[in-house]
Structure formats: structure tokens, C-alpha cells
Amino acid sequence: MRHQRGASLIEALVAFLVLSLGLVGMARLQNHLRLNADVARQRSEAVRLAQEDIESLRAFAAVSTAPGVHAYADIAAANRIENGDTGFHSNASYDIARVVAVDDGLDHKTATVTVSWSDRSGELRQVLLQSVIAALHPALSGALTVQSAVQPLKRVFGRSALIPPTAKDLGNGSSAFKPAAAAGIAFVFDNGTGELTSRCNVAAAVQTQDLTLAHLTDCTATGGLMLSGAVRFSLGTPPDAADPNDLALPLSVALSLSVGTDPSCTTEPKERVVAYHCVMTPVQGRWSGRSTVVPDGWALGSSADEYKVCRYSADQDGNGTVDRNAEHPDIYDEVDATLMQQNFLIIRGDQACPAGTPIKVDGDGPQVYADLGTVQHQP
């Protein structure tokens, strides 16, 4: 009996079919790998193009594009569009569209850049980047790294220097202050910003140093700003601005506003000084006006038995004029923060307001003083 050797035709065909299916699977896998690699490379290129377009906006090259208008990444791309080309030359054609929107009331524009292309399979792909373009010149982009020449205000008792030093810390991020003459009112400040946040009712017998949260009732939120200072007296001949120790006369302080509403001033009479605190409601965060001393039982004038009001004032920034609100000008303009140490000196009417001690004259420039001087404020 003879034994069969080798493979039959059917077995060969089955083996060939299995091999063919494996080769087809490998071919499809290779195609998918190539497609995915292609898409990854195209997506990276699309992100780069979108980033370039966003950066051109940050450089103010095209930030003035009207809201809703489509533009292209650069001049070369725009020229290709005009010549009938749809985008950049590579294994894919990129369409780059930009939409610039203006947000009402905000000082910036919102830019949306969309890069579109079709991959090798014909499927549409997109990359979208959004950014906010502030109205800040690119030359100022490094401003945060420039050290300011202005010395920061030192914190008093771990809180803003704009809060009256005698205010009581309530332990909840705020401090309260009760002017002595304002028997039923206490002012509450934010410890971080120094902003006046509310006015509260308080019992007349409670002093500032004894205030607690329990003492504050019927609080009303307010965005008011405070103006504070002291009035001292120097009635000698000549008066001495550096050492005013005469007894204080009765007086009040008034605030006349050209911008702002509800001015209210209180005084704290002491033996040799009268402290004052004025609170007003700003308009759009600002107030403008003039503060004056109002005599009680005595008169302003230029004779020996009358009195003159001098204003402590200083050219803090050295520009030769008193033009900043913190320098205690004659008239405040556009004040947007609490002002402290806005002090006055009362002297005899026949005397001149004492100036500071000059220590240097810089050519034809302003005098430089060793101590704080005064200028006449009233009458």
C-alpha cells in the first residue's frame, strides 16, 4: 500500500488564504499608522500657525480687525488666498480664520483663531485657539519686572496704612473706628485694602478701643472714602510750625464737594489738637472738593485778634508743585482713596504761615526744605 506525501491542493489554498488575510490586516494597520502620524504632524503645524496668528495680534499687527471679520495669518497667506490658493503649501492645505470680538465696557478684545484642513482620508480637521488681547502696548510687557521708584506704604498693626491707627481690629479681616463726637456711628474698614466698607450704629458709651462685632448694629454697606487729619495751634510771635503746643480752640471742619455727595465731618477735640474725620460718597469711585476750618467763637482775619489757617503741605514727588492729593493741595481733585494726615495749623492773623527750613537751592528750581512747611489756606 502506497502512503500519500506532501500537501493537497485544498490545504495549499487554505494556507494561502490565511496568509492573504494577514497581509491585508498588516496593510490596513500600516495605513492607519501613517494616517495617525500624518494627522499628528498636521495638528502640530496647525497649532503653530494658530499661535503665530495670536502672537501677531499681541504685537498689535492686526488687533484692529473689526469684530466678526475673518482674516488670515500673515500677508503671504492673504496673497495666496487672493490668487486662488486656500492656504499654506504642505501635504495639507490650511485655512486660517480669525474672529475678533469686542467686550463692551472692558478694555480688551477676545480673539478666536481657527485652523482647518483635510487629512489624507478627506476628513475635516480643526484646531481652535482663543485668547484675550489687552489694550496694553507690547513695549510695556516687561513692566512687571521693572522695580518701582515709589516706596510701598508700611502696614500698621498688620493692616492697611489707610486705616486710622486707633481703629479696633475686629478679628474678621476688618477694623472699626468710632469718632468721639459721632456718638452713634462707627466706621468699618477692610484690613487689606483700607477701604471704608460700612457704617454701623453703636452705643454712645462704647469707645473705639472697646468695639466688638456685637456692638455694631444696623450696618449699611457703603463705598465711602475718608479724609482725616488734625488741627493744631501755634499763637506765638512768630509761630512755629515744628512745635505747635498752644491750647486748641473750638472748631469744626467742613467739606465742600464739586464731585461726590453726602459729606459728613466729625471732630475729636483734645487739649492741644482737634482731630477731624470726613466721610463722603464718591461718584464713580472719586470725589473732588475743598476742606475748610470753621471757627466756633473766634474769627478768621488778618488782625492780631483774629486767626489764620495754614495748611501743612509738601512737594513729596519733588516736581516743584503741590499737585497730588496726598500732598494736601488747596483743592482736592479726583480723589480715589482714603487720605490721612491732611493737617492744619492755626496762627495769629497778623503772622505769616511758617515755611519749612531751607537747606538747599537747586539753581532756579524749587526750595528743598528740611522739615514740613505750611501755606496759607484761610482766609
Q: Give the strand tally.
A: 19
Number of domains: 2
Count every helix, treating DSSP H or I runs of 4 or more residues as helices: 2
What percentage of amino acids are in beta strands? 25-35%
Structural class: alpha+beta
Strand order of the largest sheet: 11-12-9-16-14-19
Cα shape: elongated
Distance between the termini: 145 Å
Measured as a percent range, the helix fraction is 10-25%
**How can the largest sheet be summarized?**
6 strands, mixed
Secondary-structure element order, N to C: HHEEEEEEEEEEEEEEEEEEE
**Regions with little confidence, pLDDT below 50 for 5+ residues:** 65-89, 359-371
Please state the CA-atom Rg, rounded to the nearest Å: 38 Å
Mean model confidence by pLDDT: 77
Give your account of this protein's structure.
The chain has 379 residues and is an alpha+beta fold. It folds into 2 domains: 20-135, no CATH class; 224-378, no CATH class. The protein is 15% helix and 34% strand. The chain is built from 2 helices and 19 strands. The strands form 5 sheets. A 6-stranded mixed β-sheet has the order 11-12-9-16-14-19, with no helix packed on it. A 5-stranded antiparallel β-sheet has the order 4-5-6-7-8, with no helix packed on it. A hairpin with a 4-residue loop joins strand 4 and strand 5.
